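Here is one chain, start to finish.
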Amino acid sequence: MTAYIFDSETTGLVAPQLVEAAWLKIGSIVGLPITEHFLQRYKPAKPIELGALATSHILDEELVDCPPHDSFAMPADTQYMIGHNVDYDWRVIGEPDVKRICTKALSSMLWPHADSHTQSAMIYLHYRSEAPTLLRNAHAALDDVKNCRLLLTKIIWALSDKLGRPVNGWDDLWLQSEEARIPTIISFGKHKGMAISDLPGDYRSWLLKQNDLDPFVRKALMR
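Its structure:
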């Protein structure tokens, strides 16, 4: 089973297009050895938003001779895509048919009392003395996938302690990620902040009828 840690830099939040892509191919869940790596910039078909420029520092004029944004594809052997808030990056590259492992969801489950669960915050939590150096180039895609790998090491250790057994391969980690992504608190609407288990029955029924409901919210409601 083949797993890749993936990250993208994009044009911004509105209909984002790829600007930079990076991945690490991980040879085994044991020790997370890197067997291949990839980094490439791409030319979007729309201007980069100012907020994205302020984050990635990648200028439109630097991308003139790069391949078009829609020419990127994950390697054909990709079975698992790992990332922090992985759904964002997955959507940017066209929602390939892979299993997604979200390090942000796992971090939120394992360290619920942390005041932030961004990747940078998690690096400070677990690698405090090294963090200023590790994060010097944060929001450069290759640096971000390397830091995601460091965070994944801590996640696997903590998850093994929580389960009382080793994490048994990528599919086991994916199942734990799927569980971690199911919310316990409603994060929108008139009952925002309420435990999903305490939502009024009529409101729960109404939500379940919404076609655009987040699939993980749907799972939580159906429980």
